[in-house]
Design a protein that fits this description.
It is a single chain. The strands form 4 sheets. A 3-stranded antiparallel β-sheet has the order 4-6-7. The protein has a two-stranded parallel ribbon with strand order 1-2. A two-stranded antiparallel sheet has the order 3-5. The protein is built from 21 helices and 9 strands. It has 2 domains: about 5-195, Fumarase C, Chain B, domain 1; about 205-500, Fumarase C, Chain A, domain 2. Strand 6 and strand 7 form a beta hairpin. By secondary structure, it is mainly α. The longest helix is centred in the middle third of the chain and has 31 residues, at about 200-230. Its EC number is 4.3.1.3. Pathway: Amino-acid degradation; L-histidine degradation into L-glutamate; N-formimidoyl-L-glutamate from L-histidine: step 1/3. One of its GO terms (biological process) is L-histidine catabolic process to glutamate and formamide. Pfam families: Lyase_aromatic (PF00221). GO terms for molecular function: histidine ammonia-lyase activity.
């Protein structure tokens, strides 16, 4: 039976969002209802009083100075939704759409959007029934919010377009009937409240964070395995080194490496060797991975704030009847933080690829060339390292900041945009690439540790070894290797190594 999370508007945690991403249903806290209904009543009162307010009885964007008569307000909202559903490209995955819907519910239920409670409940009902609006991935610049993707979400409530149920695409009208919902007729401002907001870019960013946490934890394990495989020193992980610099991420990462290596017979076998220093990709892991962890935590904080934000426009403040236009729909915080996360994740992959390269070279690793016996007849991991290099290099382009770009839209009314949706969406590609690099490193390091038998690695790292060996046996001679690389990559993305990381290291766990 699926878990149900009660959403108290404005108090959604990262862990709750992760669980929604993993399939949890949602329930709205009834305590939020009075504020939502009061907000909708404020909109109704404005119309009754004959006032002209942007978003309620005017056009939109450059057409904001056009007043709309009362008998056209229903058409205004429906036309707004239909005209903005201009997304293009592949559809977003259902689990991402589920997060978008939950974030939209959370934001609207805070009571500043002038939308009826029943409309918000309809979104939650569709989500809980597993009926997901078909949302094309491309077409948003992240201001005025994620207009096109949220319009596609909203079209489903109007019985327009398609939804996906159990992987099958069906007409939205049929999906509404399956959920026991009537086709919605939007009231004043409701279409705009549904379309405005940063929920798509924020959902994509959060999913990028969740995948990034799985990749990061796996990279820590892989790095520790490589230290043991290459008979590296654990002295660089000494807490005294970290404390005199003072970065929390560095201290936490170094502590994790020490915990991974504790009790390794391989480590004990070379405590008094004549090697003075290891290469940077081994020795500087606390500094590099620690910096990545600090920035991962920073982005988690930003995304967590945005997940609870009211980001449509205009905003309704019912206590004094004010409806105020502003710019909360501008997704710059999401865009810049997604750029930071992209850089951090790319560095995780970059240093991992360098450790793989180290293991290819007998002069550095002390292991057989390309980690295979009878080299020459067998190529071993030679081209697996090439694959890792290709993925790491691709990420250099993908990590280029998206937030520094801006193309004016809406006849220059919207003259600076964030590009947050792309900034967040490309995190999936970066994570996929890094997971591939980590998979190659894990296979290489496991191979290296095998060469040290009968000495064993630590108890923790042996658990990682067992997981790797469950899908990829020791590489004794050349074989068709692709399925094993994909299998380990899948384990990385799904968080199979997350349980080995110290508790509390990742912000959403």
């Amino acid at each position: 039976m699926s878990e149900t999370i009660t959403i108290t508007p404005g108090q959604l945690t990262l862990n709750q969002v992760r669980r929604i991403y993993d399939g949890a249903k949602i329930k709205l806290d009834e305590a939020a209802r009075p504020a939502v209904e009061q907000s909708a009543q404020t909109v109704a009162d404005i119309i009754s009083a004959g006032k002209t307010v942007y978003g309620i009885n005017t056009g939109f964007g450059r057409l904001a100075k056009t007043t709309i008569p009362n008998d056209k307000l229903v058409d205004l909202q429906k036309n707004l939704v239909m005209s903005h559903a201009t997304g293009i490209g592949a559809l977003l995955d259902d689990d991402i759409v589920r997060v978008i819907m939950a974030l939209k519910v959370n934001a609207l239920a805070r009571g500043h959007s002038g939308i009826r409670w029943s409309v918000i409940e309809s979104i939650a009902k569709l989500m809980n029934e597993g009926i997901y609006p078909c949302i094309p991935a491309k077409g948003s610049v992240g201001a005025s919010g994620d207009l096109a993707p949220l319009a596609h979400l909203s079209c489903a409530l109007l019985g327009i377009g398609n939804v996906r149920v159990g992987g099958k695409i069906i007409p939205a009208k049929q999906g509404l009937a399956m959920a026991g919902l009537d086709i919605l007729e939007l009231g004043p401002k409701e279409g705009l409240a549904l379309l405005n907001g940063t929920q798509t870019s924020t959902a994509l960013a959060l999913v990028g964070l969740f995948q990034g946490e799985n990749v990061f934890a796996s990279a820590l394990v892989a790095g520790a395995l490589t230290v043991d495989a290459a008979k590296g020193s654990d002295a660089p992980f000494d807490p005294r080194i970290q404390s005199v610099r003072g970065h929390q991420g560095q201290m936490d990462v170094a502590k994790a490496y020490l915990s991974f290596l504790q009790g390794s017979e391989i480590r004990d076998s070379h405590l008094n060797c004549d090697r003075v220093q290891d290469p940077y990709s081994l020795r500087c892991q606390p500094q590099v991975m620690g910096a990545c962890l600090d920035h991962l935590r920073f982005t988690a904080q930003t995304f967590g704030i945005e997940a609870n934000a009211v980001s449509d426009n205009p905003l309704v403040f019912s206590e004094n009847g004010d409806v105020i236009s502003g710019g909360n729909f501008h997704a710059e915080p999401v865009a810049m933080s997604a750029d930071v996360l992209a850089i951090a994740l790319s560095e995780v992959g970059a240093i991992s690829e360098r450790r793989i390269a180290l293991m290819m070279d007998p002069a550095q690793s002390g292991l057989p060339a390309f980690l295979v016996e009878d080299g020459g007849v067998n190529s071993g991991f030679m081209i697996a390292q090439v694959t890792a290099a290709a993925l790491a290099s691709e990420n250099k382009t993908l990590a280029h900041p998206a937030s520094i770009d801006s193309l004016p839209t809406s006849a220059n009314q919207e003259d600076h945009v964030s590009m947050a949706t792309f900034a967040a969406r490309r995190l999936a590609d970066i994570n996929e690439n890094v997971a591939g690099v980590i998979a190659v490193e894990m296979l290489c390091a496991a191979q290296g540790i095998d060469f040290h038998a009968p000495m064993r690695t630590s108890e923790k790292l042996q658990k990682a070894m067992d997981a790797i060996r469950s899908v990829a046996p020791h590489y004794d001679k050349d074989r068709y290797f692709h399925p094993e690389m994909e299998a380990v990559k899948d384990m990385v993305l799904k968080g199979a190594f997350q349980g080995l990381a110290p508790e509390g290291l990742m912000p959403s766990y």
